[in-house]
Amino acid sequence: MKVLVDTSVWSLVLRRNEPNDIAIRLSDLIFDNLVVIIGPIRQELLSGISDKNVFNNLRSKLQAFNDMPITSRDYETAAEYYNTCRKHGVQGSHTDFLICAVASNNKLLIYTTDQDFQLYARYLPIQLFDTDVFRH
């Protein structure tokens, strides 16, 4: 099953030089051609980088991954998910709910270190990537 990798995972891996479990899992997913990215995650990763060389280097690396198209259905589902979670007192960003919608609509796992997704999973039909299950 393909895996939509959240900004939190990318950021953690890109900021550290030493290998860690998260980086190893991401590397395995990349090797197995299972990684999916969407435009809003790409934008979050590239935003705030003031050094043009660093920006261009990261942009170049990310170009290895094509963006999964986001449809009107995904945006509508994201709005539904926002409303569902809000009804249960769970707050989240529009990007988080878009990630949930794209993942749910395309039967993708979500790889994240953001604990908010644990809350979303209580009320939404999403599946989180379990790093303990996926081992090479």
Commentary on this structure:
- The structure is a single chain.
- With 136 residues, the chain is an alpha/beta fold.
- The protein has a single domain (3-128), classed as Rossmann fold, CATH 3.40.50.
- It is 55% helix and 7% strand.
- It contains 7 helices and 4 strands, in the order E-H-H-E-H-H-H-H-E-H-E.
- It has a 4-stranded parallel beta sheet with strand order 2-1-3-4.
- Strand 3 (109-111), helix 7 and strand 4 form a beta-alpha-beta unit.
- Helix 5 packs across helix 6.
- The longest helix has 16 residues, at 72-87.
- The two termini are 15 Å apart.
- The model has no long low-confidence stretch (mean pLDDT 94).
Tell me the name of the CATH homologous superfamily: 5'-nuclease
> Strand share of the residues?
5-15%
Residue stretches low in confidence (pLDDT < 50, at least 5 long) are none
Largest β-sheet summary: 4 strands, parallel
Tally the helices.
7
Distance between the termini: 15 Å
- Widest β-sheet, arrangement of strands: 2-1-3-4
The number of E-state strands comes to: 4
SSE arrangement, N to C: EHHEHHHHEHE
Calculate the mean pLDDT score and round it: 94
Radius of gyration: 15 Å
CATH class: Alpha Beta
Short description:
With 136 residues, the protein is α/β, with parallel strands linked by helices. The protein has seven helices and four strands, in the order βααβααααβαβ. Strands 2-1-3-4 form a four-stranded parallel sheet.
